[in-house]
Write a structure and sequence with these properties.
Layout: E1 16-20, H1 22-25, H2 36-41, H3 43-49, E2 53-56, E3 60-61, E4 73-77, H4 84-96, E5 100-105, H5 115-122, E6 135-136, E7 163-167, E8 173-178, H6 193-208, E9 213-216, H7 266-278, E10 285-288, H8 295-299, E11 309-310, H9 313-316, H10 322-339, E12 344-346, H11 355-358, H12 380-395, E13 400-404, H13 425-429, H14 497-500, H15 507-520, E14 528-530, E15 540-545, E16 548-553, E17 559-560, E18 565-570, E19 576-577, E20 580-581, E21 585-591
Parallel strand pairs: 1-2, 1-13, 2-5, 5-9, 9-10, 10-11, 12-13
Antiparallel strand pairs: 3-4, 6-8, 7-8, 14-15, 15-16, 16-21, 17-20, 18-21, 19-20
The chain binds 1-deoxynojirimycin (NOJ).
């Protein structure tokens, strides 16, 4: 059913959604760890930025084996981040500022500290408690004695085997449990009705708290192929992108899909969740984190009775390359049209090297799994030029766009983080072969001259400064804030929000101007038409969306600006010289008359 008119479209159709990584956005209690009161105190930054919604990465009770993606209690706030009252305060303040709130839901696995898993460990093989997870005997059927092999050859996405053997309550070596991620993240058995009922209750719990939607973690992983067949290849979260624009209903199976991802059975779960959300007013949102290809397979997650959005990782991995970007745009728009859902766009997130740094590499189309001091260091200035241009281009595209915190400051990846600070399980499970994701998770710089670049808000008793919020998170021991949980590189100083706010030409002001115009001109609800200037083989991407003409130069020679247009917004002060657009830049143009 076509969407009738612009005004009939739900809010998420063209929303700009800002990802807050709670550990690293803002710290209210001075313990060096971001928290919910810290986010609340700095929500006005997001309102001023002009985003529509905030997506909060997990803040639930968790032993933090995977930075909160290992949930021990889905209805509690971890004391690291505050209390449930702090969540309510955040939600209230967001509403006052006109911001919607989306929370992260982690249904593929729980923490090994979840009461269900603890019960499973204490129970016998074959018990109902074990049936909630994926317990299996060893390959040879011997559950006792040494040397048994795991049930199959699956590898964890974070490295090492995907199975861990337990010690049975009687002290003997016993069954194995599946964990597609770290061993502290046991996979749930989604064939078990109790699991389904529980997650519907969790959805309702947060919907009752007034959340506007959920980002669904590993949405493609909940159901595993019958019989758990061997699959020797290790699958990383990203494997480049393949495309296919057949209608979702006819999407072919990907011959390379592992038996633990993108199984048809997952869709039944989302059809049930769709119904749960439909019980609530106000167009609630489910957005799938599903690394699925080809794109027609991905569109199955956003059919009309399933989710509303899916992240466009094909776009994220296209890199700084005119041909790949234009192809991704074409294919994304064509694919989403088959299901009449908006396309989404994303350049960075908490699992990816920040796009400003990826685009500063010799090959700006690579997708490294972290960058360490021993590896090629990105050209920071070049990456920033390109990163700003890529963002400006993205904000002109129809559909919904995602921003990862710090992107609006032009923040680079921390590429020289010493190994002793690393926390990402993928670094440890691959024995350092994968650098991991810590470099994009470093606390934000707010002010240039404060300790931790102002990451920790002033608390009462420090220099007489008033606290910006009340906090129930456990107070730090001393009045001086602790150092941030991951150290910030010195280069972060110059990106501090305070140095950019109100400064014409700063990255922050470029983002604000772009989002304001995007909103005023309803670009998210618009239609992309490639312009006569579009020449991807020459590195030029150009399209119109309404009256706006976008020109991006991903090539190596300057491009003449069309005489009948005037510059509305350049990606930075070096973008335009006289009548040309320089390489590594983009510009928004308006007709002269
Ligand atoms: C995807 C999340 O984005 C990532 O951070 C996490 O490690 C895995 N899912 C496992 O939950």
């Amino acid at each position: 059913m076509p969407i009738a008119s612009a005004s009939a479209k739900p809010w998420w159709y063209d929303a700009v959604i800002y990802q807050v990584y709670p550990r690293s956005y803002s710290d209210a209690n001075g313990d060096g760890m971001g928290d919910l009161p810290g986010i609340t105190a700095r929500l006005d930054h997001l309102a001023e930025l002009g985003v529509d919604a905030v997506w909060l990465s997990p803040f639930y009770r968790s032993p933090q084996a995977d930075a909160g993606y290992d949930v021990a209690d889905y209805r509690q706030v971890d004391p690291l981040f505050g209390t449930i009252d702090d969540f309510d305060a955040l939600r209230t303040r967001a509403r006052e500022l006109g911001l919607r709130v989306i929370v992260d839901l982690v249904p593929n696995h729980t923490s090994d500290q979840h009461v269900w898993f603890q019960e499973a460990l204490a129970a016998a093989p074959g018990s109902p408690a074990r049936e909630r997870y994926m317990f299996r005997p060893g390959l040879d059927g011997k559950v006792k004695g040494d040397g048994a092999l795991p049930p199959n050859d699956w590898q964890s996405i974070f490295g090492g085997p995907a199975w861990t053997r337990v010690v049975e309550p009687d002290g003997t070596p016993g069954e194995w449990y599946l964990h597609i991620f770290a061993s502290q993240q046991p996979d749930l058995n989604w064939h078990n009705p109790e699991v389904r009922t529980e997650f519907e209750a969790i959805l309702r719990f947060w919907l009752d708290k007034g959340v506007d939607g959920f980002r669904v973690d590993v949405a493609h992983g909940l159901i595993k192929a019958d019989g758990l067949p061997n699959w020797s290849a290790k699958v990383a979260m990203v494997e480049g992108s393949k495309t296919e624009t057949a209608p979702a209903e006819e999407a072919p199976e990907s011959p390379e899909a592992p038996p633990y991802f993108d199984q048809d059975g997952v869709h039944e779960i989302y059809r049930e969740w769709h119904k749960v959300l439909a019980e609530y007013d106000g167009d609630r949102l489910l957005v799938a984190e599903a690394w699925v290809e080809p794109v027609a397979r991905l569109m199955r997650y956003v059919r009309h009775n399933e989710m509303q959005q899916a992240f466009n990782f094909g776009y994220l991995t296209a890199g700084w390359d005119a041909l790949r970007l234009s192809k991704s745009i074409d294919e994304s728009l064509a694919a989403s049209a088959t299901v009449e859902r908006p396309t989404t766009w994303v350049l960075s997130n908490h699992d990816s090297v920040r796009h400003t740094s990826r685009f500063g590499l010799k090959d700006p189309t690579t997708y490294p799994r972290g960058i360490s001091a021993q590896e090629e260091q990105p050209d920071e200035a070049l990456g920033l030029h390109r990163g700003r241009a890529a963002s400006l281009l993205m904000f002109a595209l129809p559909g919904s766009a995602y921003i990862y915190q710090g992107e609006e400051l032009g923040l680079p990846e921390h590429t020289t983080l010493p190994a002793e600070f690393r926390q990402d399980p993928s670094f440890f499970r691959t024995k350092g072969k994968e650098t991991g994701r810590d470099g994009c998770r470093v606390p934000l710089p707010w002010s240039p001259d404060e300790p931790g670049y102002g990451f920790s808000l002033p608390t009462p008793g420090t220099d007489g400064a008033a606290t910006a919020t009340t906090t129930t998170a456990a107070p730090a021991q001393s009045a001086a804030p602790a150092t941030p949980w991951l150290p910030q590189p010195e280069t972060f100083r110059k990106y501090a929000a305070q140095l950019q706010s109100g400064v014409v030409g700063s990255t922050l002001e470029m983002y604000r101007a772009a989002l304001k115009a995007r909103q005023e001109w309803a670009l998210g609800k618009g239609i992309l038409v490639w312009s006569p200037l579009h020449a991807p083989t020459a590195g030029v991407v150009s399209f119109t969306n309404g009256k706006l003409l976008v020109l991006a130069n991903l090539g190596s020679t300057a491009v003449e600006l069309p005489a009948e247009f005037t510059v509305f917004l350049p990606s930075d002060s070096a973008a335009v010289s006289g009548t040309v657009l320089n390489p590594n830049a983009a510009v928004w143009l308006l007709p002269k008359s």
